[in-house]
Every structure is written in C-alpha cells, then in structure tokens.
Design a protein that fits this description.
The protein is of the alpha+beta class. It has 4 helices and 9 strands, in the order H-E-H-H-H-E-E-E-E-E-E-E-E. It has a 5-stranded antiparallel beta sheet, covered by helices on one side. Strands 6-7-8-9 form a 4-stranded antiparallel beta sheet, with no helix packed on it.
Length: about 240
C-alpha cells in the first residue's frame, strides 16, 4: 500500500572510530601518545517539551494485520500442497473493492485467468512462490508475490498455517526493486525519488500479534557518491549526514 516513508540515515561513526583505533595501534611501542584534544561531550537536548504528543500514527500502515484465507485448508498443515494460484484467487474474491470491475487492480483479476493450464504465462501476474519457516514453528511458510495491474506495484504476501487454517500474516503493496528472505525476515527494496538511494523495509514475525510486522524502514545509499568540488579556503566546513 502506498505510504509516505520518513527518510532515515544510518551513521557509522562508531565503526569508523574503531577502525582508526585499530590502525593506530599497529606498530605501537607501548608509550602513551597525545592524540589531540578530547571533544566535549554534549548531552541530548529535548526540543519543545510542552508539545502535545501525537494521538495518531504518522502514516497509515497495516501493522500486524492478518486475514484467514477462505476455502483453503489442510489437516496436515503442509503449505506446499496449497496452490498459489488458488491463494491469489481467494484474495481477489475476498476484496471486490480492489479487484472488482471498478477496483484499482481489476486488470490483475482478469489476467489471473492466464495462470491456469493453457494460459499465457507471460500475462499471468503471479510470481514464483518461495518456502521458508518465517514464524519459528518449525514448518515452512509461503512467500508469494503478484503484479498489480495496471499500476507499477507488486503485492508481497506471507502465508502460514494456524491449525488447519491458512492465514495471511503479511500484506504489502509497493513499487518494488527486489525482495529478500534473510533468516526469518522479509526485506522489501523499493525505489526512492533520489538517484542512488532506495528504501528497504524489514518485516519480522511478532509472536504476540501472530503476524509479520515491519521493524525497520531505511533510506539507504546504493550508488557511488559523486565527488564534490574542493571547498575554497574561505569556505567553512559543513557537517555531513553520513
């Protein structure tokens, strides 16, 4: 689902400092050496202490949302026996406002007819399903994706069994560069409006909510930084955000 992400930067000053300290220690004779003046520690300053706290989230996001997939069960809880095509068709049937004749993703519903035997696989919106234990119960879960036509978005879903019921435990629609499974996390990479950057949203299983919740939303550099011209002698240095 589209939403406005807050830009976030990751600082690596601690790592740089550790590397510099290691390099300085090489060849040390054991004598104390002066390394310049120690910077004065500056404590955090709380701004606007009288500001009224926000009563609603900064932006809407389906944190920890789940949905039972109607009509698809398996007493053996073997998720590989569940047809991904049937899973997507069940979502389409359950959400006519999204996939119906007047819905924004109606073309996806139409193209799902091409996913069956004898259909045009090039027009089928369904992507390959992947299987991994993301919930920590020792059983494989299903991660699948399908294109949302006519938009430039991809739906990313995770399904798990609760008893013999198939439950959707993650739902994300976004413009996507790629998706990764890392351990028990799902990482969704999306393009940013600035060249050389991208968004990375991490989803992880939350046992208390019985759902995948997003735990990290990053704005990261992916390309090489362009060299800036050398400052003139009269120019004052500026702090870098990285």
């Amino acid at each position: 689902m589209p939403f406005s992400r807050p830009a976030r930067t990751a600082l690596s000053a601690l790592a740089v400092g550790l590397l510099a300290a290691t390099a300085a220690a090489c060849g040390d004779t054991g004598e104390l050496r002066r390394d310049g003046a120690t910077p004065t520690a500056i404590s955090p300053v709380k701004l606007w202490p009288d500001l009224r706290p926000a009563s609603s989230p900064a932006y809407e996001y389906d944190e920890g949302s789940t949905e039972v997939v109607k009509g698809l069960t398996d007493p053996g809880r073997d998720i590989r026996k569940i047809d991904p095509v049937a899973v997507v068709r069940a979502e389409i049937a359950a959400h006519p406002a999204d996939y119906g004749a007047k819905g924004p993703y109606h073309e996806t519903a139409v193209r799902m007819d091409e996913c069956g035997k004898g259909g045009d696989r090039g027009r089928c919106p369904l992507l390959k399903a992947y299987y991994r234990d993301l919930t920590g119960d020792g059983r494989q879960d299903m991660t699948l994706g399908f294109r949302l036509f006519p938009t430039n978005q991809t739906a990313v879903r995770v399904y798990a069994f609760e008893g013999d019921r198939l439950v959707q435990v993650m739902s994300d629609n976004d413009a996507i560069i790629g998706v990764e499974l890392a351990g028990r996390a799902v990482i969704v990479r999306s393009p940013a409006g600035i060249t050389g950057y991208e968004y990375r949203t991490t989803w992880e299983w939350d046992q208390s909510q019985h759902a995948m919740v997003f735990t990290r939303d990053e704005f990261l550099r992916t390309g090489r930084r362009k060299q800036s011209p050398a400052p003139s002698p009269s120019a004052s240095p500026s702090a870098s955000g990285r």
